[in-house]
Amino acid sequence: MLTELVRREVGQILRLAVEKIPPDQNLGQLGLDSLMGVELALALEERLGIKLPAFLLSEGPTPGKLAQRLLQTLRKKDTTETALAEQTPDAEFQRLAAAHGVVQQEMNAALRIGTGNH
């Protein structure tokens, strides 16, 4: 679910269909330049309510690796004592999104971006 969010944001910025953005493809190889990287970081920060490190996109991430890093950042910010290992990634993402004020409608809207289902 978080990887899909990253892929949809990248798709919007690059004007590509999500299907053309493999989770393991380097974003730079897809054509994401530094200015677009800033746009992506700002969009993800706004959607998830977290501050991303400036160097995050300079590491040549893939959508999958970026989603993992976002999840780590959300975990660090999360102060609850929930057994994270027992949750599925989607359930954990939903719990963290709720903890950070991202409501289900915003998550659904974020995932619909780029599919034409506005």
Number of strands: 0
Strand count, sense and barrel status of the largest sheet are:
none
Q: Give the helices and strands as they follow along the chain.
A: HHHHH
Bulk shape: globular
Measured on Cα atoms, how large is the radius of gyration? Answer: 14 Å
CATH superfamily: ACP-like
What is the fold-level CATH name, i.e. the topology? Answer: Non-ribosomal Peptide Synthetase Peptidyl Carrier Protein, Chain A
Strand content: under 5%
User: Any idea what the CATH architecture is?
Assistant: Orthogonal Bundle
Number of helices: 5
CATH C-level label: Mainly Alpha
> Alpha-carbon distance between the termini?
18 Å
Q: Kindly give the count of domains.
A: 1
Overall average pLDDT: 80
Computed structural class: mainly alpha
| Unreliable stretches | none
Helix content: 40-55%
Describe the structure.
- The structure is a single chain.
- This protein is mainly α.
- It has five helices and no strands.
- The two termini are 18 Å apart.
What labels would you give this structure?
Non-ribosomal Peptide Synthetase Peptidyl Carrier Protein, Chain A; 118 residues; mainly alpha; globular
Short description:
The protein has about 120 residues and is mostly helical.
